What does this fold into?
Amino acid sequence: MTVLVLANTVAFGLSVALGRLWPPALSWLPLPMIILLAALLAARADRNAAPELRRYWRLNVAGLIIFGAAMALRAIDAAAGGGSALVPIATVLHVVGGLTMMAALNQLPLGARSRSSRLTVTLDVGTLMVATGVLVFHFAVLPLLQAARITLFDLLAAIVLMAAGMGTVQTAATVALSGVATMSRRSLAAVGASAVIGGLGSAVGLLLPLGLPINPMVLLLPLAAYTIALSARFQMVDAEQPELPRPRRGYSLMPYVAVAVVSVMLAVTALTRAPDHLIVVGFAVAIIALVILRQLIAFRQNDALLQENRRQRERLSHEASHDALTGLPNRTLFARRLAAAAGRDAPFCLVLVDLDDFKAVNDTMGHAVGDALLVHVAERMTAGVRPSDTVARLGGDEFAILFEGVTQDRIGTVLSRISNILLEPAVIEGELLSVKASFGVVQGRPGDDPHHLQRRADIAMYEAKERGEGGHQIYQPGMETRGAERSRLAAELRAAIAGDQLVLHYQPEVTLPEGRIVAAEALVRWQHPERGLLGPGAFVDTAEQTGLIVPMGHWVLREATRQAAVWAAGAGEPISISVNASARQLRDPGFPGEVASALAGSGLPAGLLTLEITESTAVGGGATQQTLAELRAIGVRLSLDDFGTGASTLSLLATCPVNEIKLDRSFTPPPGTEAIATAVVQLARAFGVVAVAEGVETPEQADRLTALGYTRAQGFHFARPMPADQLSELLRNAASTATVSFSR
It folds into this structure.
């Protein structure tokens, strides 16, 4: 096809330069062949095209076939000597073919979608159409009007074909300027070139031959068909690429080329005193008006773009300096404000805030509830400070507050207010929650290093957190040493859990007044390689703060049930084993399964395992209550430890599914008052649970508790915590004597 087009172009050039060298029929003969070859390529593109482009390619195929038929009729007419009845038929086919090609262009999904984009494209196309009108009128219409003889058919054909050609140019320019999302840029450029060449060639070639020895359509229509073939080829090749390049509306030279064309025509008609000079002046005025309007719109678009860029920069700046979840300043912005406060000549306070047990909320209720809780905390903390103060989220559940112009002697009142605000229950994603937080405070002065201040506030916060009751702690010199010791202890404890350094001691629980052993409480000890045997007071708090209480509790549960199963298999009456369960364990939905696994692994009946929980743990929310219910369903007994020291005691007995309550040692008479001990045993009877007195250290206490109605007790008077082998010996003696005698 390329060879045919090149040969046809060379032949046309020779005919223009040297005159007619061969019969006219030979000049028309290559046209139908070239056009039909282009139709074949367009048909192939249709088979491989995206669905939204197939109608375009099919109409192109139809239009090319119609054009090929028209050119074949012209070749036959030329062979017959010209002037036959085939010319009007060819002209009609030419018009139909052009309209079909215009319809194909209108099937393309244009890229310009916004109102502003469509208006801009319309003005650019209008500018191009004005320039096209100048050329067509000057070189085609004006000579026709000046001809000595013109038939009605020639006039009508000229009008129709000129309109078709101009319409094709308009449609092609619109497509080229708007872009098509599913068509490659070079394929789209070829479409525009084909429409311009074919449209102008049809209009000019059918109006007048321009005094040439050969009709210009002989050159222009094959070129138009060839560019369509190129467009089809480009589209097929680009469709095989991983990602089709997407056209975009950019800077276009078309309107400026149109202005240049009209300017040249204005100068030419003025210098040659052409009769259509005033008409060209009118076209020039029209094009100037379009350009001015286009520039005004461009100015407005540029202003809108600048405004959008400014808003985008502000949005990006805000996103870079603020937390996406809560909208609070992030660590970067807070560091800048802290550095600025340290550079001013005024005191300030830095407070780091950590939410207690936030991980348990995430683990048991899901991250959606956790995120909503963080937003709630951010709102409440912001409401509790002045507008001049800065509340920031540093990450996770850690927040920071910068109080400017405030000294540490006044900060306690403010933090107490914030703490009380956070403690107020709120419904978060359908869950009733309250938040306990720990605050670390450091006093800042002009010139202080912000990094050192944050480190000290962090140390103070962990001191507050270590107390396990929330509240705030002001940094004091020497806290670094305690913090380092805490970190060292946590590392050693982690190694102890992995290295089997933990051991269990057991303290018997006996009946009153007989003193018969019916249960034992498992108490963890740490056989430290350097410091010897450590009691729970030396490491349990650290385990709670670091989360090591969970793996430690898992080990205690496994070991205690194993040992209890050994005792149950021995001689005598089986005793139950009591194991302390932490709040973190009870908030874990998998804890009941862990308990069931420990029972199955040891072979211990579920009724011989008692899990001891504190009052504060039992009121820890819906997830804890669900866990307790599942544990009861397994058959495990539940004991409420340290009874009377927590909150909501009476309502707790009605809602918490426990089997026994343990009177806290502080209420064991004496030195505790008999009124509380009496009330507790009466409550136990009323609710149908067992009452156990803890901390019994003297015979007098045991006798008095028996008189008050207690049937079980535990304490140093009966036995101190002991290794498993010692308790095994004690149980063997009990089996032979029915009771155990404890020295008084």
